[in-house]
Amino acid sequence: MKNASGTTILRNGQVIDGTGADPIPNGIVVVQDGRLLFVGVERDLPDLPSAAAEIDAGGGTIMPGLVEAHFHPTYFNVAALEDLDIKYPVEYVTLLAANNARLALECGYTSARSGGSLFNIDVWLKKAIDEGLSPGPKLAASGREICGAGGLMDWNPEFRKIGMEGLILLINGPDEARSAVRKLVKDGVEWVKTYPTGDAAAPDANDHHTLCMTYDEMHAVVQTAHNHQMKVTGHCRATAGIKNALLAGYDTLEHGTFIDDETLDLLLERDVPVVPALYFEQASIEHGPEFGMPQAVIDGHQETLEGGAESARRILAAGGRLGMGGDYGFAWNPHGDYAKELEFFVSYVGLNPLDVITCATKTGAEILGRGGETGTLETDKLADVLIVDGDVVNDIAILQDSSRFIAVMQNGHIRSGQLA
Ligand SMILES: [Zn+2]
Fold first, then answer.
1. Is residue 163 pLDDT above 80, yes or no?
2. C-alpha 277 – ligand 1 centre gap (Å)
């Protein structure tokens, strides 16, 4: 992505830098040639070119652009999981994905890590975004996902002979695990998304206490991926699956639902970030019935919500890292609702808003592998900035209302908001 040119002064708002530091009241941020030249207060402001532009934050908030750490650009608000890989051809899903990416950017998300994509679309969407052809968050792509045969994502019955090729590479054993990762190497992904465990969504044979991959398969994935400088994450609910992932060398965990003392120690030892994606559970419980979700599934989501919230509290209290990402793209949890995750972590999980903002900015960028260049407002980083009309610390729900965004900035370009 090319940087903007010129100098812009952002003033008249509290500055939240994303590091967890207290907001700077009436702070100033200076953007020069797409990077942050200065973050501080008026009296320390360096000499600037007289032609510098100004943006008035109207007494609101100047903060880093948000990072969605578990983004499914190709999930088109599906109500039936089995629609995912067979309902539409790749051409139409690509257009839907581009639309979801544009929406995420309008919602203040300047970066996102894909949590799995149909047909490798996110790899090419990322390229189109980077080249300025299509608006969206800067992406870390993961392409198709890997799951053990018969596991959570292997839902098409054998007699249909259609497999899951559009979404999932199904494996039996470490050799096939290596082979699947090698396909992804050629596809050009950065992240390998796997399914070590089941989920409340599949109570019959692959519930949230069931394993969907063996340790040997997971270890083979990690060894092969790391050899090719790719990172590995996994859908981990059951405690044994979390333990397998940590011992196998996973780089992050999705959900991390049932953490015990032993897995918490392992997690902290390796400083592995976790993306709990808890609002998805709440949305499933609240809206599942409207979509015919069976009671057993809703009960399972209640259990994973409570377990996941407790684990999230323990991880953060022990000094671990959490990313904010919400598995959006289901009918009951649609694209565009991304920032509901943030409010939910304040109202239900009980975190303070500033910590949640750090998770949604700094930690998110670290999860993407871009912590050195984005995620906080610090000198020399890229100007990925969100300017909001309102005090987001006092009311984090404001972040759900994109009509209150004065500007959404990527590399110094105003991409969305009132000034776009
Ligand atoms: Zn997901």
1. no
2. 8
